[in-house]
Amino acid sequence: MMPIVQPGMVLQGRYRVVRELGKGGFAQTFEVDDGDQIKVLKVLLPIMQSTFPKAVALFQQEAKVLSQLNHPGIPKVQPDGYFTWSVDGQEPLQCLVMEKIEGLNLEKWLSSRNNQPITQEQAIAWLKQLVAILQQLHEQWYFHRDIKPPNIILKPNGQLVLIDFGAVREVTETYLLKQAGNVAGTRIGSPGYLPLEQVEGHALPQSDFFALGRTFVHLLTGRHPVHLRSPQTQEWSWRSYAPHVSEPLADLLEELMAPLPKNRPQTAREIEQRLAEIELARAANAPIVSDDLATALPPQPEDIDRHKIPIIPLAWVGSIAVNFGWAVLLLLRMVGFRSLSPKLEVVFNDKGVENHLANRLAIAKIYYQCALLLAPDYKKVHYNLGSLYEKQGKFREARANYKIAMQGGMTAASNNLGRMYILEKDYAAAVELLQKGLELKPDDEVRYALLKNLGWALLKQERYGEARRYLREAIYLRSDRAVPYALLAQVLEAEGDRQNARLAWDNFFKYADNDPSPEVDAWKMIAP
């Protein structure tokens, strides 16, 4: 009879078994006490050794990978963490001792929330963590092959940890030759998360990206991928279950899950870049703080002719606006507030700005709409509303409001719209718009933003000489801002001037912590 690991046993003279943690698939896991540390012991099920020839090799591969990698998102294994253990000459058990990860796996975590979908902000933050893990894994010539919510643990400090490396595959010359010869490999993975090439035994590093996309569809919809296929048409569809996901993020997930590996991002670095662009698109510029509130307050009731309808105090109007939305707009139109208080739209705009800056966007939107009812051509309100929509990922609405603000002569709106065109990869439109904005002779702060974004757009068009000129002018205006240095560094790298590019990156990091621009974190991700 094969030896059975039980609580109280001591393995290797040091690992005292405390309790069983779980059993499933290939292995059984236990909590063990290693002196002053609690760790996890993973034991390959004896039946797997006899019925699945590759089980031992896969188990040993997991031990090898985990002992080589050093990342907070990967369980740590000491060089002596893998060993075999037997009793009375029986067939040895394959054992692996690794770091114990505290927390819930994402499947259990989601279940504890009644499968309530995660927010877009949470999805982006988690995607960045997991992509960083995959980047290190792939750079070591390994890929995971079984990414799914149960194999991702959320630690109490918010760190995600990718676990269960039993299916990991090494990219070797033999592997590449097999792929070229269309020789099927081991079929490993979980239904709902496997791409077609992995089902057919031809997994690739890009297969991890497919599983990553399916994992986040699960998290953003609260539904397992196998339940997102229509029983009538058999078509797989998920976007209707995640209306809170912006179009750029949804498009990225679709690319991750593309049927053909060649149509997916090819590297983790490419996904990081896309996430950075999405974050830039959502980090809309702060709204303009408009006219002085002290001069915009409506007159007190006693100052109004008693034959006229009395002015409702601003607090009342705000309360009605927040709770009844469009009803208050209709009321304002009916009672003719515009004629009673020509500056009331300014007050509404200021209240919108106050709530906008506090991230109470639904309330801010109502105040802005109240202001526009009274003054449809109020350019500052259109600018602020465009900023709000951009922050919500509603880019069509943002563009429409920015264009109205531009017609009113707001160069800041030209800058924001040009920046949106860059993020949408319409670089020609961005260049044209930003150059027109510069012709309007804006103040230095707006001019700096226009120059910086124009340099960015020209960089993307590979017009390096022009990009360099505009970026250096932006640096001349604001030498304490980090972003133009990052863009200039990329221009210089493209031109082969690595020495000056390094200096530009150094200046970027010098000012990064004090630069409020939303782009700073994005460029940190791609800096060498």
Low-confidence stretches: 168-189, 284-327, 337-342
User: What's the average pLDDT?
Assistant: 76
CATH architecture field of the largest domain:
Orthogonal Bundle
Number of domain modules: 4
- Distance linking N and C termini: 57 Å
What characteristic shape results from the CA principal axes?
Answer: elongated
Helix and strand content put the structural class at alpha+beta
Tell how many strands the DSSP assignment holds.
11
Could you name the CATH topology of the largest domain?
Transferase(Phosphotransferase), domain 1
Strand content: 5-15%
Determine the fraction of residues in helical runs and give it as a percent range: 40-55%
Radius of gyration: 29 Å
Strand arrangement across the biggest beta sheet: 1-2-3-4-6-5
Describe the main β-sheet briefly. Answer: 6 strands, antiparallel
The helix count comes to 24
- Going by CATH, the homologous superfamily of the largest domain would be Transferase(Phosphotransferase) domain 1
- CATH class of the largest domain equals Mainly Alpha
